[in-house]
Each structure stands twice: as structure tokens, then as C-alpha cells.
Amino acid sequence: MLRVLAVDDEKPALEELLYLLRADSRIRSAEGATDATEALRRIGRALEAGPDGEGAIDVVFLDIHMAGLTGLDVARLLAGFARPPLIVFVTAHEGFAVQAFDLKAVDYVLKPVRRERLAEAVRRVRDLVVALREPQRTERPAPAPETVQAAPGGGAEQIPVELGGVTRFVAVDDITYVEAQGDYARLHTAAGSHLVRIPLSALEERWASRGFVRIHRSHLVALGRIDELRLDAGATTVRVGDAELAVSRRHARQLRDLLLRHARG
Predict the structure, then answer these.
(1) Against a cut of 0.70, is the pTM above it?
(2) Residues 6+ away with beta carbon under 8 Å from 1
(3) Distances (CA, A) of 132 to 47, 52, 64, 79, 137
(4) How far apart are CA 215 and CA 221, in angstroms?
(5) What are phi and psi of 191, to 5 degrees?
(6) Which residue, 24, 144, 14, is CA-closest to 3?
(7) Fewer CB atoms < 10 Å away: N or C end of the chain?
């Protein structure tokens, strides 16, 4: 049973989040704070009382954009404590995911918050709290990645993405390149981009047979989507649609060979 503090300076958003959290049977208590200062005060008291004390907090569901200190500021401050509560960021903005996971966040939930997505975040927190309470477990397990799956009816392989609180499916064949963003990967298509919770290395291994090649530690590219290979003063780049991507030296020769074979075949 989890003890939760939810922090959001927008009162309607905070009340909705608390309503959803309190409806989850895995939550023992869920209290709210409307600014970072109040949240830090409560967390400080909880840490002084200890994990079994009154007002103890297992996890903080934390908005990022707030007046005064941001959610990221709060997370940085908490990182200085020996045993801080876990953190789940709840935000309307995708762009802070890399910073969030650098700060050891358990999860990153996008607004508007869906009940099913929040339940998954609670599951991850609960599993981690249980693991941390086991005396032989000293490391935090990695959060479970998103799965790539075949479309219903045996169609083209697809990957689920969240957009505005709705889960949609993007065909792998529509992806032009993938960009690493911490524990996440950003999938780029002609229509836009989507952030998914899966490491670039996992996609590289899975999609090698589909013509995706690593050109840099931060980029995986669909070979058939490369429009141009350019060599300039010893630097190699490729153009994929409107994007120009750097090719690392270790991958440059292999990429040239693959492009030649692709053109001939």
C-alpha cells in the first residue's frame, strides 16, 4: 500500500490526479500540495519521521511547470537525501523526459492523465517499493519498456505511442529515423515524431532485419529513407527528409557499403 504526495500548482489538475490515485486500491493515502515549497516541507517532515513514521511518503507525483521552483528543481533537491521518495513526473510536455530520467524518475506520465496509464505508473512504483524493501535487493530494477507488436489481423509491425492521452499505433515502415533520448526513443515519421519508452539499443537489435542501421550513438536510420550521403572535410552526414544527421566515424564506412549494396539491389 503506497503513500503518495501529488504536487501541481493548477488546482483542477491536482484534484483530478488525487481522485484517480485514491481510486486505486494499491494507494493507502494520497495527499496534495499546490507548490514546490509546500511539497518540500512535507517531504522533509516525512524523512525526519522515517519510513514508518506518520506522514511517510513513498512516492511523489510531480508536475514539472510550476511557479517558483519547478518539478525538476524539486527532484534535484531530493537527490541530495539518503533515502528520498520515488518520483513520477506528470506533465503536459514531452520535452523533459531525458532530464527526468537522468534524475532517476520511475515514470513520466503525460497529461491529460488516463486512468490506465496512471495505473501502470502505480504498478511500477509498487514493484520498485517492494523490491527496495527486500533486504537482499540494493539496486532499482529498470522500468519495463514499451513493447513493439504486430497489428491486429497480422498486418505490418506497429509500435504503440501516446498522443494527447490516446494510444495510437505507428507502423514501423513509416518511421524514417529514431533518436535516443535517455531511456526513451523518439520515432520520427513524415507526419511528426513520437516519444516511446524503449532504449535505442533494443530497437536497433529488433529492427536490423527491417533495414534500420545505427549511424551514431544517438541515431538509428531506415536505410531506404536516406536521401543523401555527404562527405565534407572528413565529416559524414546523411539527409533523411528535412533532417541532416551526423554519422560517426566508426559507422561511416559500414554505412557507405550498405548504401551501395542497397542501391545495387
Answers:
(1) no
(2) 26, 27, 28
(3) 16, 14, 26, 17, 6
(4) 7
(5) -90, -15
(6) 24
(7) C
